[in-house]
Q: What sequence folds into this?
């Protein structure tokens, strides 16, 4: 095969169209991946809409890539990769290796982070070329359609919890039961936390319990979320997966002394938290980015061990425009995944 298909947008905010391209050869330190599945993330909209600097058109989005290595660039074999290896590439699409965070070993906050769909063509395609340091090995137990979302949504929630101050038996609240939150609840339970799920509407209580949550808090019930959390003893950690600053703010007074608010849901609006809310309870607020390729691999291995899977809707690459629109409209349950096979 000398050509392959990509789903691209040619102008900012434009519709996706399928196009044929010549198959590229991987450069030094790169591999070419035969893409089997690629999740659609809300962050893809930043690149489709050129909302960040450096986006060029035509744009091929997609940073939840799963497939197999089909060609090795010079030096890739020295990293232990072979043709046929099953791999995933997420938000972490490689690092520069020379900025201060990289020299300190903190690659996920690399000043020149290579995000697929931004630094290079992403996975809304039949093939993708990626640097070897972006590759995570997919366990045999995971299907490609599960592994793709694990490389972004999965690792973000998993890492947010495992790097938090929570310990087994602590009360951990997960705000939101969407694409991130439904995974966050499963991870929190598997890590041994007393888990409270927070979402809008009493009808989501059964779903929260199906995911393993020990408690459900309906944020529309009339009882303030913070009060509901304090009635459970106060949350040692709140994992805020909902991209809603007002909803995140409503949890702060429900955090126990020296507890932690871990924010992974993005919202450009500021949070309404006062210094006194932090000082008097010695509370900590921090943002959490995604995770490196090793973090993605850890996430997938943990998920395989504990039977944790994302809830997905798979759609052929040909139907990318409809799938992307469904994600934007908030109608996905819960991760839209494009497939090529």
A:
């Amino acid at each position: 095969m000398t050509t392959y298909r990509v789903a691209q947008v040619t102008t900012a905010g434009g519709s996706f169209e399928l196009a044929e391209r010549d198959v590229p050869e991987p450069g030094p330190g790169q591999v070419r991946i035969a893409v089997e599945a690629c999740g659609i993330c809300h962050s893809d909209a930043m690149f489709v809409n050129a909302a960040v600097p450096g986006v060029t058109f035509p744009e091929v989005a997609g940073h939840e890539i799963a497939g197999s290595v089909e060609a090795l660039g010079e030096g890739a074999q020295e990293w232990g990769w072979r043709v046929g290896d099953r791999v995933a590439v997420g938000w972490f699409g490689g690092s520069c290796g020379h900025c201060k965070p990289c020299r300190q070993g903190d690659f996920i906050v690399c000043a020149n982070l290579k995000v697929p769909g931004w630094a290079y063509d992403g996975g809304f395609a039949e093939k993708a070329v990626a640097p070897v340091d972006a590759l995570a090995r997919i366990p045999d137990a995971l299907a490609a359609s599960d592994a793709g979302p694990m490389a972004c949504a999965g690792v973000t929630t998993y890492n947010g919890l495992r790097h938090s101050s929570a310990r087994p038996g602590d009360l951990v609240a997960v705000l939101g039961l969407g694409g991130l939150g439904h995974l966050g609840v499963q991870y929190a339970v598997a890590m041994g936390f007393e888990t409270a799920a927070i979402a809008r509407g009493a009808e989501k209580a059964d779903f929260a319990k199906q995911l393993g949550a020990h408690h459900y808090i309906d944020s529309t019930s009339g009882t303030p979320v913070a009060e509901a959390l304090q009635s459970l003893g106060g949350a040692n950690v709140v994992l805020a997966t909902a991209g809603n600053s007002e909803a995140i703010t409503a949890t702060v007074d429900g955090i126990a002394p020296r507890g932690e608010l871990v924010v992974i849901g993005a919202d450009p609006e500021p949070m309404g938290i006062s210094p006194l809310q932090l000082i008097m309870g010695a509370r900590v607020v921090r943002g959490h980015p995604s995770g490196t390729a090793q973090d993605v691999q850890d996430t997938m291995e943990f998920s395989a061990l504990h039977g944790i899977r994302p809830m997905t809707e798979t759609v052929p690459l040909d139907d990318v425009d409809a799938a992307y629109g469904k994600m934007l409209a908030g109608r996905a349950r819960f991760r839209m995944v494009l497939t090529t096979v």
About this structure: The chain has a mean pLDDT of 97. The longest helix spans residues 144-162. The radius of gyration is 20 Å. The chain has ten helices and 15 strands.
